[in-house]
Amino acid sequence: MAISNRYDFVLLFDVKDGNPNGDPDAGNLPRIDAETGRGLVTDVCLKRKVRNFVGLVKSEQPPYEIYVKEKAVLNKTHERAYVAIGAEDLLKGEDKKRKGGDKVDEARQWMCSNFFDVRTFGAVMSTGVNCGQVRGPVQLTFARSIDPIVSSEHSITRMAVTTEKEAENQSGDNRTMGRKFTVPYGLYMAHGFVSANLADQTGFNEDDLTLLWQALSSMFEHDRSAARGLMATRGLYVFKHDSKLGNASAHDLFDRVDVKKIARGPARQFSDYQVQINEQNMPDGVKLQRVLG
Prior knowledge:
Elements: E1 7-18, E2 22-23, E3 29-30, E4 38-41, H1 43-57, H2 74-84, H3 104-114, H4 116-121, E5 122-124, E6 133-135, E7 138-140, E8 143-148, E9 152-158, H5 164-169, E10 176-194, H6 196-202, H7 206-218, E11 230-241, H8 250-254, E12 257-261, E13 273-277, E14 286-292
Antiparallel strand pairs: 1-10, 1-11, 2-3, 4-8, 5-6, 7-10, 8-10, 9-10, 11-14, 12-13
Helix pairs in contact: 1-7, 2-3
């Protein structure tokens, strides 16, 4: 059964000596708001980490398969749906593209039932054989750092070369120079929304919701790399509404989470900040759940 309550949430995470989300259009520099200097992490980046976590803990087994994943061929997955619902005859012939007819809704439902990320974030599945489109009940904003960040550039050396020609050019020295970009420290805040009305359409249920909170709390623990440095979720504050439509505006609830720097100099660790939650005079029908923090 789908969830019957609306949720709004605030996610806090930090990075130390790492690049939380490189921008391929800027030489993989950490993403930044050019006007304010504050760091950015895209919603797509955060969803990727949630997908990776769920795929890891659930071993990619239905109903927790992952639709958008590394090396996936999406149209092949659409064809799986038609085979599963017994409509494989629609896959025959050269004109199968975008076909589906009255089976599109059934194929879309199969995708929702088997793939966690389709059920959660939605998907456009109309390429190739048509499995329709799904608007997901869970949405995330870009994460933005509390304060401006500094992008540090480091020269790095590899004691090896790729080809024999490179070795000859260096007379056997065999060194390769490179660059690495890091943020010395940044504390980021993202906001999220869970719609009970859209959950009705995808079948997003209480077990899925629990798994989402688990993923947001622990996703950085299983996403280590030399480029990302030290990253961790520092807070997950969930506002639960008593109704499907909600009992208060999301922005009013988000304003109750206040993060301030208390260090005199540049922030270099989480304890350089103070997180205060205003739980006084909470709107009727709204409860705060501190999942983490």
